[in-house]
Design brief:
Elements: H1 14-69, H2 71-74, E1 102-107, E2 110-118, E3 121-127, E4 141-143, E5 148-157, E6 163-171, E7 178-182, E8 188-192, E9 198-205, E10 218-222, E11 228-233, E12 237-238, E13 248-249, E14 253-254, E15 258-259
Antiparallel strand pairs: 1-2, 2-3, 3-4, 5-6, 5-14, 6-9, 7-8, 7-10, 10-11, 11-15, 12-13
Length: 260
């Protein structure tokens, strides 16, 4: 292309050059203001997050502390804590720590916590969805020494007339695997033996425990292969007359056993 057709460079008149300069400066300053407006919410959000972060952290700490205070209730029995029928050897008492609650037996969504207080001395607490003490000592029952201890550690009567009884105890026989007894209606109840010989049975029935007089079942302690090791008969409830709606429930107590 011939340069003869390119118009020569010319400077703008002084008045137009000054106007052009002001226009450019106004555009630049306007862009900075818009950026500041866009960045301001982000800066405010960051400041809010900086304020909320410690508050959120304190909230989570509070939740964790609250959960820790009732951790002994929410603990679930581990495979090492509770044995199933047919296992070779259940966990022995020397596996328990003194003054530390431990899940020793369970039945469905109910659990039995036991605390060793000394040589051959234990205190137990039964926990169920409808029975959740806030502290260990609130509902703790200390059981006496004996070859076989059993008693009622929880009672519930629902509106539809169904009864729920928590029966708990302990056997000192190291070969024990299962406990067998009958509910108030005569139906056989079978439960596994857990840690240190403890057991728990959730007994549900439409028949009240004292409807036919005192509830006096025979307990059979059995080993591997369902071999009977010992048996005992004891009262779980007492009634003045039958039928009676007023029952006295026996707390865990030692019984006289008969070796087989």
């Amino acid at each position: 292309m011939s340069t003869s057709h390119v118009p020569p460079l010319r400077e703008l008149p002084a008045r137009r050059q000054e106007a052009r300069k002001e226009h450019l400066l106004s555009e630049i300053s306007g862009t900075h203001r818009r950026r500041a407006v866009l960045l301001l919410p982000l800066f405010v959000c960051n400041r809010r997050m900086a304020v909320l972060a410690p508050a959120f952290g304190l909230l989570m700490i509070g939740i964790l502390v609250a959960a820790t205070t009732t951790d002994w209730i929410s603990s679930q029995p581990s495979r090492k804590s509770v044995v199933a029928a047919g296992d070779s050897t259940p966990t022995q008492p020397d596996m328990m720590d003194v003054n530390r609650p431990m899940v020793t037996a369970h039945d469905g969504n109910a659990a039995l916590y036991a605390t060793m207080r000394g040589p051959d001395r234990y205190c137990v607490v039964a926990v169920a969805p409808w029975k959740r003490p806030t502290t260990l000592s609130q509902d703790e029952v200390c059981i006496p020494g004996g070859t076989f201890v059993v008693g009622v550690v929880g009672v519930r009567s629902s509106r539809d007339g169904r009864q729920t009884y928590l029966v708990a105890g302990r056997t000192t026989d190291p070969e024990a695997r299962t406990i067998h007894f009958s509910d108030p209606s005569g139906r056989t109840v079978t439960r596994n033996v857990g840690v240190a010989g403890f057991f728990l049975a959730v007994v549900r029935t439409e028949m009240r425990a004292c409807a036919a007089g005192s509830w006096t079942p025979t307990f059979s302690v059995r080993g591997v292969g369902s071999q009977e090791l010992m048996r005992t008969t004891t009262k779980l409830t007492s009634a003045r007359a039958a039928p009676s709606t007023s029952c006295t429930f026996a707390a865990p107590h030692a019984t006289r056993t008969v070796p087989r």
